[in-house]
Amino acid sequence: MATINRFEDLNVWRESRIQAQTIYLQIISNDVIKDYPIKDQTNRSSASVMDNIAEGFDRKGNKEFKHFLTISLGSNSELKSQIYRAFDRSYIDQSSFDQLILRNENISKMITGFMKYLSKTELKGTKFLIEEPEMDY
């Protein structure tokens, strides 16, 4: 397994970024949709998924990271509900709905798997690493 040094290297963050951009293109920037509250809430929840992954990663500790992943998972579930609402109001078609739901469910699985990994690993986060000072002999 490769060492991950930046949140941008996490597949789950990259997938959630794509999800946020897809939501933006299909719902938020769609001028035909005049329902501002759903556009705003959809925008905020899709952003929250990726933002909480990034924030948790940079907290440098597994406990905090898992906490932020839990928030991200909740935001992803909220987004899923909003995708249903957008479909029910005919803001998106069946094909778009199916693609959005599939990506959303895959992200939920990725977040859940990552949380399980963090619970099992011996590593507790980089903020707890102590670097040995270099000795000049």
Account of the protein in words:
It contains four helices and no strands. α1 packs antiparallel against α4 (94-120) and α3 runs antiparallel to α4 (94-120). The chain has helices spanning 11-28, 36-57, 62-88, 94-120. The chain starts with 10 loop residues before the first helix and ends in a 17-residue tail after the last helix. Helices cover 69% and strands 0% of the residues. The chain has a single domain (7-120), classed as de novo design (two linked rop proteins). By secondary structure, the protein is mainly alpha-helical.
Provide a concise account of the structure shown.
By secondary structure, this protein is mainly alpha-helical. It has a single domain (7-120), classed as de novo design (two linked rop proteins) (Up-down Bundle), CATH 1.20.1440. The protein has helices at residues 11-28, 36-57, 62-88, 94-120.
Topology:
Blueprint: H1 11-28, H2 36-57, H3 62-88, H4 94-120
Helix pairs in contact: 1-2, 1-4, 2-3, 3-4
Helical segment count: 4
Assigned CATH class:
Mainly Alpha
Query: Which architecture per CATH?
Result: Up-down Bundle
Shape: elongated
Q: Sketch the topology as an H/E string, one letter per element.
A: HHHH
Number of domains: 1
Measured between the Cα atoms of the first and last residue, the distance is 35 Å
On the 0 to 100 scale, the average pLDDT is 89
> Over the alpha carbons, how many angstroms does the gyration radius reach?
18 Å
**β-sheet strand percentage:** under 5%
User: Oligomeric status of the shown chains?
Assistant: single chain
Q: Poorly predicted ranges (pLDDT <50, ≥5 residues)?
A: 128-133
DSSP strand tally: 0
**Biggest beta sheet attributes:** none
What level of helicity do the residues show? 55-70%
Secondary structure class reads mainly alpha
The CATH superfamily is identified as 23S rRNA-intervening sequence
